[in-house]
Design goal:
Layout lengths: L4 E6 L5 E4 L2 E4 L8 E6 L3 E6 L2 E7 L6 E2 L7 H7 L3 H9 L3 H11 L8 H8 L2
Parallel strand pairs: 3-7
Antiparallel strand pairs: 1-4, 2-3, 4-5, 5-6
Helix pairs in contact: 2-3, 2-4, 3-4
Length: 123
């Protein structure tokens, strides 16, 4: 028997809500608001003002699911850890910066170096 979980969640500034210790993205116009959630084994449904606004596959605790359409365009690459986009941005600052950024990101855990590349691009 699949008993659904019902909850109320607050939409945080990062466009996500927490349901059963997993994170789910919602549209940015709901930031700061409370939404109603229905989660079963397969799906998480998010409602705002009794209207269905988002459906995600259910995630295990500690996991997250982010729909790029829920994020502002300027934050999508950062939030989704798009390494190729970051390398292209660095290359746009010149060949030396592009090569240095690519070398930083050639790492078994490249996302741990992303902040260094963003700091390099902020100069």
């Amino acid at each position: 028997m699949d008993l659904p979980v019902y909850a109320t969640a607050k939409v945080h500034r990062d466009h996500h809500i927490e349901v059963a210790k997993a994170l789910y993205s919602v549209p940015g116009n709901l930031i700061g608001q409370r939404v109603e959630v229905r989660a079963d084994r397969a799906l998480v449904r998010v409602f705002a003002r009794a209207q269905l606004v988002k459906v995600h596959p259910r995630q295990a605790p500690g996991r997250r699911v982010t729909d790029p359409g829920d994020l502002p365009a300027e934050r999508t690459a950062y939030a989704l850890r798009d390494l190729d986009h970051l390398k292209r941005m660095a290359a746009g600052h010149g060949p030396a910066i592009g090569a240095f950024a690519a070398a930083l990101l050639e790492n078994p855990l490249p996302w741990t170096k992303m902040r260094q590349v963003y700091a390099l691009l902020a100069w």
